[in-house]
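Example 5.3 — Dienelactone hydrolase domain-containing protein
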Amino acid sequence: MASKNPGACCVHASLHEGEPKGQHQIVAGVDTYVTGVENGNDNIIVILSDIYGYKFKNNKLIADEFARLGKYKVLLPDLAEGGEPPASLEFIPAWFEKHPNETTTRIVKEYLTTLYKEATPKFLGGIGYCYGAKFAIEQASKDGHFDAIAIAHPSQVSIDQVKALTKPILISAAETDPIFTRELRWETEETLTEIKVRYQMDLFQGVSHGYAVGGDITNPSVKYAKEKTLTDQLAWFSRFK
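Solution (predicted structure tokens):
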């Protein structure tokens, strides 16, 4: 495995300050948080969220920053068909029973297929945080819709999915991460080198799994890593659009 299944670190988060600027709309048949509409449809970023989902304030604030700084239209779709995120670790197995990966794979594929038909973007980038990383990687293969992707502290990704990548990938990783461990980082790096896909991997000291979305930004190390991850992602996508 390139990353393990979600665990306790996936259901603990600190709320960030600020108020979301976008609004919820039906896009490609799915309830979606939309921001940066003034930037048009040429360059679109789709964020596939962590297990907290598309209604989580922090995810919306990240989308707003991408729209503001990168001049993208940014879409944050519902991956769980209206389901609420698990309240704690003990509810994760039940949540996955209701929302199996096969269903989310279908939702993402159908969403992006319809989005391409409706919006006809010139560039479509994908971001995957934790739970969403698996599905971003699936859509960065030969038959996928993303032109480039960026993921942070991924979960559930198999090494076979990494081997199937054909599009550029940026990986942002935490020093302390029981899900995307040191050994799995090394295995992922070796695989990306072997298949010769364009990649960048950044490792942030002093932070743990989930830092890019739900980290406690009163901690200077977490604040730096969260902000640097976002600026790295912006710089990454600017290379390919």
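Remark. The mean pLDDT is 93.
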